[in-house]
TrEMBL record:
The keyword 4Fe-4S does not apply. This is Flavin reductase family protein. Its EC number is 1.5.1.-. InterPro entries: Flavin_Rdtase-like_dom, Flavoredoxin, Split_barrel_FMN-bd. Coiled coil: none annotated. The lineage of its organism: Bacteria, Bacillati, Actinomycetota, Actinomycetes, Streptosporangiales. The keyword Electron transport does not apply. Keywords: Flavoprotein, Oxidoreductase. One of its GO terms (molecular function) is oxidoreductase activity.
Amino acid sequence: MTTDHLTITPSVLYFGTPVALLSTENEDGSFNLAPMSSAWALGRTIVLGLGKDSQTAHNLAARPDLVINLPEPAQWPAVERLAPLTGRDPVPARKQGAFRYEPAKFEAAGLRPEPSETVRPPRVASCPIQLEARAARVRLDVTGEFQVIEAHVLRVHADPRIVVPGTQHIDPAAWSPLIYNFRHYFGLGRELGHTFRSETARLSARGA
Ligand SMILES: Cc1cc2nc3c(=O)[nH]c(=O)nc-3n(C[C@H](O)[C@H](O)[C@H](O)COP(=O)(O)O)c2cc1C
């Protein structure tokens, strides 16, 4: 086989997925907030991958309610303020030296909590998309290092700025996720096209 590709062993395989801020409930009834990006949607289920020593994974195994808050690109500094923090006390061995325990994550990030409607953890008020959800299945991955969580979405909140007026659709031209690309933050570039199943494209064609 001929190829000009290099065979490499990168330290991470974070090839560019949206950042989510997960709010969950701690043992004492306070709330934790943690950035993550190993997440994707299967219908109304969101699959999440979380280190098993994170406070978030512990919370979800015991108290399944959560909010999956989706920040926009301009919010990356707030996400990064959360990056060196853990809600777990004592700090897990693997994180010692690099992370510190912080029980008040919303305050530390400078993000305002806003009450949810169907779950106990609050939403992040400034995140344009907020998914109230409940973990339906929590299990270890094959390596035993991560919890794979299947969370069922109960309610979707969207900033009116990103909703096609008068419809149930998120406007892909108005919404931009914050992308975690090999540990660097990016927004989206300009639109390249759309799939044949796009409902918003059909709406604009009808309006034209
Ligand atoms: C942008 C970003 C994305 C991250 N993605 C993940 C992820 O998908 N899964 C994970 O376990 N940790 C991820 N982390 C690391 C967690 O945020 C970190 O382990 C944190 O300490 C968890 O907080 P907690 O212990 O309070 O739950 C990510 C961190 C950042 C900054």
